[in-house]
Amino acid sequence: MTNAQLDIPADEGRIPEMSAEEVARHSREVLAEHSRSFNWASRFLPEESRDDAAILYAFCRLVDDTVDEAESPEVATKQVEALRDELNRERAPSAAVAAFLDLSERRGVDVSAAMELVEGVASDLGDVLIEDDRALLRYCYRVAGTVGLMMSPVLGVEDPRAVAHAIDLGIGMQLTNICRDVLEDAQNGRVYLPETRLRRAGISQKELLESVATGGFELEETVAKVVSDLLKLADRYYDSADQGLAYIPARSRLGICVAARVYRGIGVRLRYLHDANPLHGRTVVPGLEKALWLGPAGRRFAMSSLLKPRPHKAHLHRALAGLPGVNAGPSPKPSPFGT
């Protein structure tokens, strides 16, 4: 997201005189322009959380665009360094960063999670080849799990046990993104499907890149098998997120139920409408289908109001050891009563 997207004067990105209402309005515009799914789901958040969620999204969009929209890797590297300095308060912040820092003070958002987000996005500089599941999950944590970590206080979550489940929702969503965007990513020299999984299926990342470059479709079936397996992995993280929904205050919970169901719907559509083949192009959930996901979201909301949250399964975070907010310790022994 550039300063132009925030209607900010071209003063090297330094923060101008903007009221809180103007910052919130511009952030809502960024959300509406760049994420139809999240913008749609945000309508179900309470008003006091809606603007802060938009400010957080606008900041995350800025971080993402710092790399994706840069003129060159050299420019992107300089912009990433500037972002780090702004978050560390070592230079005057841009409007989006200033709004985020204000949010972090008001809501208790962990700035270390924002720094991990910056590191994750910076890893997208140049060609990307993910080696194995550990590298994949750590990447997903950095670029999306951190968003769940930062979003929790915005939603009014107070129980620290909620954090691990919030991270898992972000990871599930990012795995969905990766499965949806295989073609587009490969066209940009990036393969997030782990080499270990592709090798087990009988191909390599190099072969996938060559096939996409030549417009060949001979690898569709093999790639679809890998994507299908990764969507199953995403389901495990979505399920974990569901198990922590009760930690979210009821007024904010419905919005998260909607967001989770609509985003999970991308994987459902990819799996059942396109046989998990991402090489056909980008899978998009149309508006009517999003509306249909309101039913499952409402049922999950009702269930979460009746059931207690379940302990987080620590094995989901074993690959994330050492990162902020993760639960990489031993899982509790299963109850003989199945609860």
TrEMBL record:
GO molecular function, one term: squalene synthase [NAD(P)H] activity
Stored Pfam families: SQS_PSY (PF00494)
Record-linked InterPro entries: Isoprenoid_synthase_dom_sf, Squ/phyt_synthse, Squalene/phytoene_synthase_CS, Trans_IPPS_bact-type, Trans_IPPS_HH
Gene3D superfamilies xref list: Farnesyl Diphosphate Synthase (1.10.600.10)
PROSITE patterns reported in the protein's UniProt record: SQUALEN_PHYTOEN_SYN_1, SQUALEN_PHYTOEN_SYN_2
GO biological process assignments: carotenoid biosynthetic process
PANTHER family tied to this protein: BIFUNCTIONAL LYCOPENE CYCLASE/PHYTOENE SYNTHASE
Protein name, as recorded: Phytoene/squalene synthase family protein
